[in-house]
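Q: Got a minute? One more chain.
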Amino acid sequence: MHELSLLENVREILEDHAISQHFSKVNQVTLAVGKLSCVELEALRFGFDVVMKGSLAENAELIITELPGLGECRQCQQQSKLLNLYDPCPYCGSPQVTVLQGTEMKIKDLLVS
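A: Always. Here it is, folded:
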């Protein structure tokens, strides 16, 4: 389950920011997770409390927002929503679609004290 290692990276980022921005507790974490990222949202929710136990984010609320997939066709230059990573262009059928959004996972927002 790679979601646990992703959450460990989130915890490390929180700890680094706590030092540089002088806060000691994280009350809420909002993660933006791309629909095409291959991250299982339920596994992320399940693992959050386990990974954050004993850290400054223990008992923090986790909010997950899902980013839709977005691509641009290199053939016809049209942008379209992507439901799957290798979807062809819905306008011209070309398989040459560059993913613009949807593969990322990032910390979108924090509530700290």
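A: The longest strand covers residues 26-34.
Q: Perfect, thanks.
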